[in-house]
């Protein structure tokens, strides 16, 4: 399995194509939206050449997974787990001690992935997603004992 590639803005169309293959039309990110994220300070993207992508953001000593997606044909091979780990490593290298993310309460696959990767529920955002579905706020300590300014 080839290693994740650090995304540049010229990867945005490919990342958007992956996103479109993983989310319903109203929820997928355009190439422009992805490119706009990639140029923000602290934001980075990683691509799995097998058909996956992750966007994450580091702000001071905290980080956040903005989105993560793996094309159906490449799922259940441990690829998303590897992308997530690579994002955690990069965020940790940039000084983040904690990673946060939001996931739909109904997203069984993603919740299982995050639970297996050591994420714990830190909160709930009622009716955050279309259809009135709650978001779960998950948190993982990247550096044992790290405290955050937030
Ligand atoms: C969630 C998603 C990224 C997982 O991608 P993936 O490459 O299949 O995940 P992995 O193969 O790395 O799975 C790692 C672990 O997560 C869990 N997992 C992943 N998919 C699962 C599923 N469908 N059912 C149950 N557990 C699942 C398992 O514990 C798995 O380990 P195992 O295969 O050894 O049992 C993918 O299903 C996806 O893109 N879904 C649509 C977009 C999405 O929901 N993104 C996340 C938004 S927060």
From TrEMBL:
The keyword NADP does not apply. Residues 3-143 form the N-acetyltransferase domain. Gene3D superfamilies: 3.40.630.30. Keywords: Acyltransferase, Transferase. The keyword tRNA-binding does not apply. PROSITE patterns: GNAT (PS51186). Pfam families: Acetyltransf_1. InterPro entries: Acyl_CoA_acyltransferase, GNAT_dom, YpeA/RimI_acetyltransf. GO terms for molecular function: acyltransferase activity, transferring groups other than amino-acyl groups. This is GNAT family N-acetyltransferase.
């Amino acid at each position: 399995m080839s290693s994740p590639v650090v995304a540049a803005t010229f990867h945005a169309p490919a990342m958007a194509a992956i996103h479109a293959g993983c989310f319903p039309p109203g929820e997928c990110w355009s190439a422009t939206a992805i490119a706009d994220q990639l140029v923000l300070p602290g934001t980075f993207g990683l691509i799995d050449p097998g058909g996956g992508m992750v966007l994450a953001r580091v702000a001071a000593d905290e980080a956040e997974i903005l989105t993560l997606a793996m094309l159906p044909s490449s799922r259940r091979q441990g690829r998303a787990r590897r992308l997530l780990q690579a994002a955690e490593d990069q965020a940790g290298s940039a000084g983040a001690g904690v990673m946060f993310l939001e996931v739909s309460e109904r997203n069984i696959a993603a919740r299982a992935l995050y639970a297996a990767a050591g994420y714990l529920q830190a909160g709930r955002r009622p009716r955050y997603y279309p259809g009135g579905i709650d978001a779960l706020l998950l948190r993982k300590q990247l550096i044992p004992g790290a405290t955050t300014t937030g």
